[in-house]
Amino acid sequence: MGRNPSRSIKTLIDRFRNSKTNFASLLLCLDAILVTLIIFYVPYTKIDWDAYMSQVDGFLSGERDYSKLKGDTGPLVYPAGFLYVYSLVKFVTGGHVFPAQILFGVMYIINLALVQFIYLKTDVIPWWAFVLLSLSKRVHSIFVLRLFNDCFAMIFLHASMALLLYQKWNLALLLFSGAVSIKMNVLLFAPPLLLLMLKGLSFKGVFLALLGAGLLQISVGLPFLTSYPVEYISRAFNLGRVFIHFWSVNFKFVPEKVFISKEFASALLFLHLTTLLVFAHYKWSKYEGGLICLLHTWLKDTASKLLSFQVFSCKSRLKTINKEHIATVMFVGNFIGIVFARSLHYQFYSWYFYSLPFLLWKTTFPTFIRLILFAGVELCWNIYPSTFYSSLILLCIHLFILWGLWMAPVEPSYVEEEKSHGKY
């Protein structure tokens, strides 16, 4: 007798349900096929590639004055890590688009694998929801049809997060610093990362981790810092740039006069920092008695070791932080920055898309609401150019997700607490 097809399908589904790793691996292979088809059959869109190559050519020819490193889309505004990465890309691809697309296709799969690893280790979303990580038309385009430097920055960031899950602080901070050296949007993760360091490391651990990250930044920028330091710092680390209103995906509904004003930027910065502090105090430090109590305890411990001259002889690690807590603090902290960013351009979607399923499943929304929100975000990012209504809807969805995260229960901060709460 022949096998029952429905029973075979059920057996296959049960196998995937019982092993997220198998399902994630299958999705990785299917997405690799999709990426290959996109590269071969979807026309490449010329945006920044020629400008990147022009800036790299200037660097490779010996130019160290950042004010003179320019392309057809304007002057170079990224830290020096960008130049090293794209110099390597040019060496590998010869500066040609098609081999670069293949390289970026490989990087897309590597990045997806890193994100899947984070999701598997935190175990927040159901097995079938992993498919959401492969459903973004815009993110596929950002990687293999646009070749933006955001892709490399986020790969480094996700690799750093994967190491954080295992408390490999020094190496994680080096990769984090490397990501910042490619594009500064990664600094949105810096406040939650610092909080996690205070929770998991002693003064010695924090000092050594930050020292390594700082030395990497100095080393990367050294050729420019020793020749034209003002030009390098003012251009590569310019936090006051005003973006063009037309390209804004999130605040297109705001009149241009308001959009470019310093008052609007200051208000958003105030809301960003205030929301971070509120989450840090009431959510992320709940088990420590609040942010002030956490800081007081950490500073008191540091002061006592300083007075006894043991600050550098004590252990670097204090406690083992719960993996889910690490991912939650990092992803939510970055998302808060996204919500209050003055301007999100189309490639900026890669800054937080891969955290969306995690964030949605951290809320207590019903599953169909989570899927509607996910689809709504993706739809808004695929409307070009953005409109009054698409940007307003995107902001409303962002705020609704943020409210859901605020109302969500707080996970234990440390492994010891996680065990006591019966997760094991």
From TrEMBL:
Pathway connected to this protein: Protein modification; protein glycosylation
EC top class named in words: transferase
Annotated compartments: Endoplasmic reticulum membrane
Transmembrane segments: 21-44, 76-93, 100-119, 147-166, 172-198, 205-225, 325-345, 351-375, 387-406
Reactions it catalyzes: an alpha-D-Man-(1->2)-alpha-D-Man-(1->2)-alpha-D-Man-(1->3)-[alpha-D-Man-(1->6)]-beta-D-Man-(1->4)-beta-D-GlcNAc-(1->4)-alpha-D-GlcNAc-diphospho-di-trans,poly-cis-dolichol + a di-trans,poly-cis-dolichyl beta-D-mannosyl phosphate = an alpha-D-Man-(1->2)-alpha-D-Man-(1->2)-alpha-D-Man-(1->3)-[alpha-D-Man-(1->3)-alpha-D-Man-(1->6)]-beta-D-Man-(1->4)-beta-D-GlcNAc-(1->4)-alpha-D-GlcNAc-diphospho-di-trans,poly-cis-dolichol + a di-trans,poly-cis-dolichyl phosphate + H(+)
Keyword Glycosyltransferase in annotation: yes
Membrane topology of the entry: Multi-pass membrane protein
Main location (coarse class): endoplasmic reticulum
Any one cellular-component term (Gene Ontology): endoplasmic reticulum membrane
EC number of this enzyme: 2.4.1.258
Gene Ontology molecular functions: dol-P-Man:Man(5)GlcNAc(2)-PP-Dol alpha-1,3-mannosyltransferase activity
Matching InterPro entries: Glycosyltransferase_ALG3
Keywords: Endoplasmic reticulum, Glycosyltransferase, Membrane, Transferase, Transmembrane, Transmembrane helix
UniProt xrefs under PANTHER family: DOL-P-MAN:MAN(5)GLCNAC(2)-PP-DOL ALPHA-1,3-MANNOSYLTRANSFERASE, NOT56 - RELATED
Name listed for the protein in its UniProt record: dolichyl-P-Man:Man5GlcNAc2-PP-dolichol alpha-1,3-mannosyltransferase
Lineage start: Eukaryota, Viridiplantae, Streptophyta, Embryophyta, Tracheophyta
